Amino acid sequence: MRDLKHLIYFENLLVNSDNELIQQAKKDGKICAAYTCENVPEPLLNLDGVFSARLRAPRTGSMEMGTYYMTSLLCEYSRALLERALEGGFNFADCVISPDGCSMMNRCVENMEMLHTMDGGKDKFFYEFMEIPMKCDDNGLNLYVVQCQNHILKPLAETFGIDTSDAALREAVKKHNHLCEVIQQIGEFRKEENPRITGYEFCVLTMASFVTPYDLIIGKLEETLEEVKKRKPEKENPYRVRLAVVGSEVDDVDYIKLIEECGAYVCVDRYCMGSFPGRVPIEMNDEEDALTQICRHYMNMGQCPRYMSTNKLKGRKKYVDQLAREYNADGIIYEQIKFCDPWAYEKMMGGFVLEENYGFPVLQVDRPYNIDAGAGQMRTRVQAFIESIEIKKIQKGGEK
User: Fold this and answer.
1) Nearest 5°: CA angle at 243, between 238 and 248?
2) Mean pLDDT of all residues in 333-357
3) Do residues 10 and 220 make contact, with C-beta atoms less than 8 angstroms apart?
4) Helix or strand holding residue 359 (H, E)
5) Helix axes of 138-148 and 290-301: crossing angle, nearest 10 degrees
6) From CA 364, how far away is CA 382, in angstroms rounded?
7) Tens of pLDDT, residues 37-60
8) Are the C-beta atoms of 211 and 53 separated by less than 8 Å?
């Protein structure tokens, strides 16, 4: 297939946390609201005059300082973020908002605050810590609404004068939904038997949408959608199997590239910073206030293991099953970043249930935050998994 016109442009946006679009938005006088977790409702950080940036630490090498403050027993993502903050890599941020999705991320941002990694010389800089519900019910929704009001909207309005009215929220949701619809339309082409977009390309597009200002990225994404519609796939499908990748936070696009280099097509994603559920549009009505509807969407759609009620525990497996079948996956890679406690349990149970109850071949992997640190071992495991799926197909009288 011909290379996507803007692929290199999107790839370059992911090389550094402080990408050129963030720099441009800052020059235009906009406020950058950095956040660390999918449990922070993204539209609330994209009101007029402010834009969101999901924190990530691309090309992470040594994490000595992050490990010094947080110990080697905490997840590599949280340590990598602290390391990058200490290096000055997040100095573009004007505030940081972190939910208690896990204690490790809380400790990471607490260290950022105590060590003054980003707030030096910034009179208005603030850190906010949200409590999010553990159950998906009316009490949980009420808690979510209050937390978003007190730890996102109120400080943005009082500190930077941001309009947080109901009308402003609805306009932010409108833009958010348009971005989601563009990403989802591109992702639909992954259902094709001979797909016209690779899993890696889609991962790059989706990732870029999380770490750049909406107004500066949407045009390139719309243009890419039109390009993909007219794109001609390879004459012969180059992939041996189709895989769903699910699990914890993934912001390293090279991880998806590695899987596809082994001969597997990543046909659908269900991980933090992926298109499901992060790029599912928010349904709105005119009867309720916008904030309640936004919080309900994030609570109901959220796939984070922090939600521990029975319906959520079972629902996470069912959601993966539905996606895998809809996108015709032959197997599932269930991944977690090393030392991620919430996803360690979820991966073990989820992998078992999806294999025993839903009939999918499942590969469970612990992976380093930067895949380059364990690329050889990961490549071997993925190749073996692909071969095992092919053998099972032959045994069932499938493809030769």
Assistant:
1) 135
2) 94
3) yes
4) none
5) 120
6) 10
7) 999 999 999 999 999 999 999 999
8) yes
